[in-house]
Amino acid sequence: MQVPVLTIDGPSGAGKGTVSRAVAKLLGWHYLDSGSIYRSLAVAVLKSGLDLSDVAAICRVAEAMSLEFDCGDELVVKLGGADITSQLGTETTGNTASIIAAYPEVRAVLLQKQKDFQRLPGLVADGRDMGSVVFQDAKIKVYLTASAEERALRRYKQLIEKGIDANLIQITREIEERDCRDQQRATAPLTVPEGAHYIDSSSLTIQQVIDQVVNLVD
Ligand code: DC
């Protein structure tokens, strides 16, 4: 039986994670946060002190990496049995993930780990190339975006709420750099997949986006 897949791609900070998790919960489907796979590899690579240009060594780490995902209310990720969840969300991890994700060899190693999430009754997959590469045959594809200024402001508010010192100008610059790297890389760049529903969340609430996506599935 064909396992249904809903893909939600878009740039960082567009609300993909929150929307995907909520939609997966409403539908009772599994959830793949593919960014967390790239982020976990970034944590492993940073820990091992590897040079970020040593592609062969990064691939060896990716092949050897044993990841466990607990996708309950809060995502918990274990790398080699150790809980690394708190390290996944940092800017250093995100930027490193974006750098190593540009290597086609690294993407090839991580491809099957992502496909393994396609299980009954269905999957909501969030990332950059879910609809264009990993789950090309997905029945429903969404491209969720928002302006760089709006995404930076959301990130800034999140950090301030957590009591973390943040600089809006620097966050905006980092978001624009990351967008540029993710969109311009040669392999599996961030792009609007063919047939995808385009949603700009700049002036929408999270609930409005969730409703729009669930309506597509209905
Ligand atoms: O979605 P995120 O911010 O957690 O992703 C972190 C980085 O991982 C992102 O900047 C690029 C990379 N990534 C990717 O190349 N392909 C994906 N499907 C998901 C993430």
Question: How is this fold's topology laid out?
Answer:
Blueprint: E1 5-9, H1 16-27, E2 30-33, H2 34-48, H3 55-64, E3 67-71, E4 75-79, E5 82-83, H4 85-88, H5 91-100, H6 104-115, E6 123-127, H7 130-134, E7 140-145, H8 148-161, H9 168-184, E8 197-200, H10 206-217
Parallel strand pairs: 1-6, 1-7, 2-6, 7-8
Antiparallel strand pairs: 3-4, 4-5
Helix pairs in contact: 1-10, 2-5, 3-6, 8-9
Question: Quick gist of this model?
Answer:
The chain has 218 residues and is of the alpha/beta class.
Structure description:
With 218 residues, the protein is α/β, with parallel strands linked by helices. The chain has one domain: 3-Layer(aba) Sandwich (Rossmann fold). It is 51% helix and 17% strand. The protein contains ten helices and eight strands. The strands form two sheets. Strands 2-6-1-7-8 form a five-stranded parallel beta sheet. Helix 3 packs parallel to helix 6. The two termini are 19 Å apart. The model has no long low-confidence stretch (mean pLDDT 94). The site of 2'-deoxycytidine-5'-monophosphate has 14 residues, from helix 2, helix 5 and helix 9.
Level of helix content?
40-55%
How big a fraction of the residues is strand?
Answer: 15-25%
Q: Count of helical segments?
A: 10
Low-confidence stretches: none
Measured distance between first and last alpha carbons: 19 Å
Write down the domain tally: 1
Largest sheet: 5 strands, parallel
List bound small molecules.
2'-deoxycytidine-5'-monophosphate
Mean pLDDT: 94
Strand tally, please?
8
The CATH topology is Rossmann fold
Q: What is the spatial order of strands in the main beta sheet?
A: 2-6-1-7-8
Oligomer: single chain
Protein name: Cytidylate kinase
Subcellular location: Cytoplasm
Binding site for ATP: 10-18
Keywords: ATP-binding, Cytoplasm, Kinase, Nucleotide-binding, Transferase
